[in-house]
Amino acid sequence: PDVIIEAQFDDNDAEHGQNHLQDTLTDDIKKLSLDTGEKGKAAGVTGVHRTKQDDGLKVNDPRLLPDEFLQRTAKVAYILEKKHSRAATGFIKLLADRNSELFKRCAMFSPVDHRVPRVYVPLADCPPEFVIKPETYSQMLFICRIVDWKEDSNFASGQLCKSLGQAGEIEPESEGILTEYSVDFSDFSPEVLECLPQNLPWVISPGELAKRRDLR
């Protein structure tokens, strides 16, 4: 219910420089700490004390604090179902550190969807001229599939599956979206095509048309 203003200043404060703003913030933080301490005493909280070195609250046992002062935490115990296809559309580029061993083995894949992490892909999966002329492929869309993500790595590991074409064109963009959502857009099999009428051109018979509602 309380609204805490960490700092409030106008154009006139700019004339006093950064030191004035720093002093204002320090004073507000001290006031905030004092207000929090008074609220804790009013609520009957025990096990709370202050030190001269630190003007903030010290709590010996978090269980003594009211619920509104606690932040709930949790840990993922098990993954029931993997919803994402692990495939993403994006661009490839060389690593920034040219002197590292990783630069000689991998490239960086940057997905268009920022919810998907960046991925290390082997240079062997990249086009042969990518290392020599990386700018040629700066606007080329690729499909990458994530295969692993180690706990001690900031980036996932994956494999380049396919080159789609230039970004911004309808066909590459559409194919990338369908692949990401695991939509099968391959050609129909001969078994499926045999179910269709073979004598063309085909028209609806008058008897069948009489049983249907005409929405044309």
Automatic annotation (TrEMBL):
<keyword id="KW-0540">Nuclease</keyword>
<dbReference type="InterPro" id="IPR041505">
    <property type="entry name" value="Dis3_CSD2"/>
</dbReference>
<dbReference type="GO" id="GO:0008266">
    <property type="term" value="F:poly(U) RNA binding"/>
</dbReference>
<keyword id="KW-0460">Magnesium</keyword>
<keyword id="KW-0378">Hydrolase</keyword>
<keyword id="KW-0269">Exonuclease</keyword>
<dbReference type="GO" id="GO:0000932">
    <property type="term" value="C:P-body"/>
</dbReference>
<dbReference type="InterPro" id="IPR050180">
    <property type="entry name" value="RNR_Ribonuclease"/>
</dbReference>
<dbReference type="GO" id="GO:0006402">
    <property type="term" value="P:mRNA catabolic process"/>
</dbReference>
<keyword id="KW-0694">RNA-binding</keyword>
<dbReference type="GO" id="GO:0010587">
    <property type="term" value="P:miRNA catabolic process"/>
</dbReference>
<protein>
    <submittedName>
        <fullName>DI3L2 exonuclease</fullName>
    </submittedName>
</protein>
<dbReference type="Pfam" id="PF17849">
    <property type="entry name" value="OB_Dis3"/>
</dbReference>
<feature type="domain" description="CSD2">
    <location>
        <begin position="107"/>
        <end position="181"/>
    </location>
</feature>
<dbReference type="GO" id="GO:0000175">
    <property type="term" value="F:3'-5'-RNA exonuclease activity"/>
</dbReference>
<dbReference type="GO" id="GO:0046872">
    <property type="term" value="F:metal ion binding"/>
</dbReference>
<keyword id="KW-0479">Metal-binding</keyword>
<keyword id="KW-0963">Cytoplasm</keyword>
<dbReference type="InterPro" id="IPR012340">
    <property type="entry name" value="NA-bd_OB-fold"/>
</dbReference>
